[in-house]
Design goal:
Strand content of chain A: 15-25%
Oligomer: heterodimer
Helix content of chain B: over 70%
Shape of chain B: globular
Number of helices of chain B: 11
Order of helices and strands of chain B: HHHHHHHHHHH
Structural class of chain A: alpha/beta
Distance between the termini of chain B: 32 Å
Number of helices of chain A: 13
Strand content of chain B: under 5%
Number of strands of chain A: 13
Order of helices and strands of chain A: HHHEEEHEHEHHHEHEHEEEHEEHEH
Structural class of chain B: mainly alpha
Shape of chain A: globular
Largest sheet of chain B: none
Radius of gyration of chain B: 21 Å
Chain lengths: ~350, ~260
């Protein structure tokens, strides 16, 4: 009965045509609250999510990291209301994920993008603009602005989607996720299949959207992208949250540096390098004739080491960090799993 | 009703060349036959010569096959349902889009036949049979569309055609063995009248689902016999759309499950 009522009332259409702010717009944003959700497949044989809880605050960018099959896509699908959880609850601004008011504030980019391949890029955007209940008067301008935002060239807007490359489809999908001015953005591998330029555009776009106050939930295997965009990162393993890291916190953590020098241009040996490192209280993890890997505890220690090496007349040719903070955390998390 | 879903359904059909060719053949074939018939026998000029309203079922079949199943198969339904649109709204929009488009084709076809008749015999221009035939076709289109939308929501891709073929086969099987069943019933001393009535109900159900035909001549004559098919039609549409909504509501649309 309720379903039939919704057919005839069509709240999306009424709100859009009358220009009245929808209920979702008027409500205060309270973020996403996931409480102890469990999701199984194949009649309970496969447990994709196991009593998972998390909270995304309004305006926050949260990264999801984990190995394949950890349950990240299942989590996003549950948040979108495509999958029903076996137990637990999900609230988006205090509402169920499949409620119409929730759908109006969610933007979604799936990992496996599917399109009506006969449509042109412009048609596709206009279709979603109409589905989102946005006013017809601004349709053309809104869609073109979004296509420009993802830097999809205007010459491709009138080309059928079936002729698009993988990167172009991804950009179109990203633009589609932004239709309807969503308050929350759920992105599943947004830069998948994109060229380096596209990856940079996505990164910049995410930063801009975050600055605009959008709440972002980003599932990506590109750890550097998460590190540059997200405030927090959640490590998911076997359907549960295994670790939460605050990326805004500037902690003095251990870093690995790769230092190379021109061995042919100096009489200084590995032992001399060892002495300098020892003097600066740094641990050498690996040393060779022309390079060494050292562990430092922050940028100050790194600067001191380089100064000391230069003073000792070491012909340094390269100093670079071995991996990012998130990469180290991921490696550490994986090693912990192996040890268990 | 969602305008975007309706228009996209029509445009999707237009983009499929095979379907457009089949639709053209379905449209032109009966007209060509009708014209030949008229030309070869100019004396047989009466409005009853219009093709049977059941032709509308074929138009509906062409428009409705895989109308939801295709979107389920290629995954585009997930992005549609991620928007503020209810499943009920989506299903009703699909049904309306299919019913309306098929009706338009079916009425256009009979209109062409009617014009050919009128050219041969101008007195037939205002014959009421044309209007009755057109309304019967429209009713048939919306009734059949409801059943096909329901079948399409059960499966993915074009498998709904297989379901329809299976259902039609069951009907044929039933028709072929109904007499044998009646005879067997009399052997086991069951009330013959009771078995006969039960058999007729089953047969009527099959007919009401496969051919939701409401004879307009009976209806316009004021006979209360016309209300039976009309009630059956509304029941069919309501049940099919409700079941379709229920099926899609309880379905999960995520590739994560793969």
């Amino acid at each position: 009965m309720r379903a039939l009522e919704e057919v005839f009332t069509d709240p999306a259409g009424i709100a859009a045509n009358s220009g009245i702010c929808s209920g979702a717009d008027l409500r205060a944003s309270t973020g996403i609250v996931v409480s102890g959700i469990t999701k199984t497949y194949k009649g309970g044989k496969v447990k994709a999510l196991n009593n998972l809880s998390l909270e995304v605050k309004p305006g926050e960018a949260l990264g999801l990291v984990g190995p394949n099959g950890a349950g990240k896509t299942t989590l996003l699908s549950c948040l979108m209301g495509f999958l029903r959880v076996d137990s637990g609850s999900i609230l988006v601004d205090g509402e169920a994920p499949d409620a119409l008011v929730t759908r109006r504030v969610l933007g979604y980019l799936p990992e496996r993008l599917t399109f009506d391949r006969w449509m042109t890029g412009r048609d596709y955007m206009q279709y979603h603009h109409e589905l989102a209940g946005m006013p017809e008067a601004t349709r053309k301008l809104d869609c073109e602005a979004l296509l420009e935002k993802v830097e999809l060239h205007p010459s491709t807007w009138s080309v059928a989607v079936k002729k698009y490359s993988r990167g172009m489809l991804q950009r179109l999908g990203f633009a589609q996720a932004l239709v309807g001015n969503p308050r929350y953005l759920l992105l599943d591998e947004p830069a998948s299949g994109m060229d380096p330029h596209g990856v940079m555009i996505v990164r910049q776009l995410l930063k801009t959207l975050k600055a605009d106050g959008l709440t972002i939930l980003l599932n990506s295997h590109q750890l550097d992208q998460i590190e540059k965009v997200c405030d927090r990162v959640i490590f998911i393993k076997s359907g549960t949250v295994s670790r939460v890291e605050d990326l805004k916190q500037k902690v003095e953590q251990e870093e690995h540096l790769l230092i190379r020098w021109l061995a042919s241009a100096t009489n200084l040996s590995q032992d001399d390098f060892g002495r300098v490192a020892q003097k600066e209280c740094l641990a050498i993890t690996e040393i060779n004739a022309d390079f060494a890997r050292v562990s430092t505890t922050g940028s100050a220690a790194t600067v001191n080491l380089i100064k000391a090496l230069v003073t000792a007349n070491f012909p340094i040719s390269e100093v670079r960090p071995e991996d990012t903070r998130l990469e180290r955390l991921f490696i550490k998390s994986s090693q912990e799993e192996l040890n268990v | 009703m969602n305008r975007a879903v309706c228009i996209t359904t029509w445009r999707e059909f237009k983009a499929n060349r095979v379907r457009v060719i089949l639709l053209t053949l379905l449209f032109l074939g009966p007209i060509a036959m009708f014209t030949l018939q008229r030309c070869s026998n100019p004396e047989a000029l009466n409005a009853d010569m219009l093709s049977h309203p059941l032709m509308a079922s074929f138009f509906t079949l062409l428009w409705a096959s895989g109308v939801i199943g295709r979107e389920v198969q290629n995954g585009t339904i997930a992005l549609v349902l991620a928007r503020p649109i209810t499943i009920a709204n989506y299903v009703v929009s699909k049904w309306f889009a299919v019913g309306f488009a098929a009706s338009l084709c079916a009425v256009e076809a009979v209109f062409c036949e009617h014009i050919i008749s009128a050219v041969n015999c101008p007195s037939l221009l205002w014959a009421p049979e044309f209007f009755a035939n057109s309304i019967e076709r429209i009713i048939l289109c919306f009734g059949t569309a409801a059943f096909l939308v329901f079948l399409s929501s059960l499966v993915s891709g074009l498998k709904d055609l297989a379901l329809l073929a299976g259902f039609a086969f069951m009907f044929l099987l039933y028709s072929a063995f109904a007499h044998t069943v009646y005879q067997m019933a009399s052997f086991v001393h069951l009330d013959h009248e009771y078995v006969l009535h039960f058999g007729r109900i089953i047969e009527s159900l099959f007919i009401a689902i496969l051919f939701p035909y409401v004879p307009m001549s009976v209806f316009l004559s004021g006979s209360y016999f016309a209300y039976g098919p009309l009630i059956a039609l509304f029941t069919l549409i309501t049940c099919c759309l409700s079941c379709s909504i229920w099926v899609l509501t309880h379905r999960e649309f995520s590739y994560a499950a793969d």
